[in-house]
Inverse folding.
């Protein structure tokens, strides 16, 4: 793996959802965010009104699901994994298996993978 870090995009998947099932807050991050930008991450957590909110994280810009999983679960020199980054700021991160190479199955309510992602989103606070 190279040392590229993909920026998370927190999204809602197309599926039959009721309004009560949709997270109350959606934050889109990308660009030049550093692991130490604590004011942003803490503000996100505080805005939810929940001490340790669940956050659904999709590495949808990753060229492959394997690269997305790598960025979510594995730290690289000088940069935390998304799992460890969000945990450090008090979130409970959940990985959405959605990348460039699997976006059709990962976003479809007609597949096991898509239904799993939809269930994560329904249960997420962010």
């Amino acid at each position: 793996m190279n040392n590229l870090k993909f920026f998370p995009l927190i999204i809602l998947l197309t599926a039959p959802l009721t309004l009560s099932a949709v997270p109350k807050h959606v934050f889109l991050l990308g660009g030049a965010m550093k692991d130490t930008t604590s004011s942003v991450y803490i503000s996100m957590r505080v805005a939810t009104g929940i001490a340790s909110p669940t956050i659904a994280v999709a590495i949808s810009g990753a060229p492959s699901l394997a690269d997305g999983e790598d960025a979510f679960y594995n730290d690289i020199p000088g940069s935390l994994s998304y799992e460890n980054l969000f945990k450090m700021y008090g979130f409970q991160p959940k990985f959405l298996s959605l990348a460039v190479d699997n976006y059709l199955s990962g976003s479809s309510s007609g597949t096991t993978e898509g239904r799993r992602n939809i269930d994560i989103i329904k249960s997420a606070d962010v």
